[in-house]
Amino acid sequence: MAIEVLVLKEAAPGERRVAATPETVKKLVAAGASIKVEPGAGLGAGFVDQAYIDAGAQMATHDTPAQADLVLCVQSPDPAAIGQLKQGATLVGMLQPQADAARGDALKARGILSFPLEKLPRTTRAQAMDVLSSQAGMAGYKAVLIAAQLAPRFFPMLTTAAGTIRPSKVLIVGAGVAGLQAIATAKRLGAQVEGFDVRPETREQIESLGGKFLDLGVSAAGEGGYARQLTDEERAEQQRRLAEHLKGIDVVVCTAAVPGRPAPKIITMPMVEAMKPGSVIVDLAAETGGNCEATKPGQTIELNGVTVAGPLNLASMGAVHASEMYSRNVFNFVSLFVKEGAINFDWNDELLAKTRWPEVVAAE
């Protein structure tokens, strides 16, 4: 008998993405799975129920969660919804089980085998499953569009009958996937773009996109392509040089993050206060506390004429393409253990073993 796969309708406020599209449903059906989709699950991303039915899925009913062997989601269901899942089912999504004790307890109580995709090892083989990268690309793109909307100026240089308008000076803080997408987007809009990252190896990537690398003389190159924590002395010197530079910047987009930790505070309140009126800061890191001390997650505020925005869940704003990328990531991951209509885990596969929560114990 084929395994039953359930695609959840997201319940988090403002979440428009979906964990499977008609394209990936068709692939799962071809892999021998029986797919059920909660009514309206894809509507926020532009995928109507009939498109799923045409792809070979059925609409879920109220008792489907208690029967599904594999459950796909974007954000984790709440504890009450987890309590409705089948005992011992498998759950795949951006679950963050350790971020919420009640959620983690609910997963353990139901014996749910969880695969929080944010834990996926960042290896070459895992790139096609890397939800953090695919969703960060959309977030970086949207952050620059928000900045352009909030800025009281043009991004490109314009020559008009009323004189020449100089291009806006845009600084992108952090050159991960979101930051690089932000640099590329700001450049396309015609701005004069700089990229800042404490990892010196990002210079080439920033420059390849047409940005200028802002070198503040402080390096924080770490393991696995991530930044390490700066020492107090390094941070003080970085902040001194950055504060001076920010006085001439029109727009700042912050994207710096350290996995599993609060976002590093890079732009201090005194720096914001010293920026010229009309400047804009869009803090993409608001969900983990923000790179800017003035950021209020989910709000847009003004301080002495400087606009500071802390938008949340930006990837959801581009729900169509974000869902297409995310669902392909999910399909590629579940293809590791869904074959010929059955679930078969190979715990020698590091992508499964290192993503699983709770982790695989040595005896297994």
From TrEMBL:
Residues 148-310 form the Alanine dehydrogenase/pyridine nucleotide transhydrogenase NAD(H)-binding domain. GO terms for molecular function: oxidoreductase activity. It is an enzyme of class 7 (translocase). Keywords: NAD, NADP, Nucleotide-binding, Oxidoreductase, Translocase. Its EC number is 7.1.1.1. Pfam families: AlaDh_PNT_C (PF01262), AlaDh_PNT_N (PF05222). Residues 6-139 form the Alanine dehydrogenase/pyridine nucleotide transhydrogenase N-terminal domain. InterPro entries: Ala_DH/PNT_CS2, AlaDH/PNT_N, AlaDH/PNT_NAD(H)-bd, NAD(P)-bd_dom_sf. PROSITE patterns: ALADH_PNT_2. It catalyses: NAD(+) + NADPH + H(+)(in) = NADH + NADP(+) + H(+)(out). Belongs to the AlaDH/PNT family. The transhydrogenation between NADH and NADP is coupled to respiration and ATP hydrolysis and functions as a proton pump across the membrane. This is proton-translocating NAD(P)(+) transhydrogenase. It comes from Pseudoxanthomonas sacheonensis.
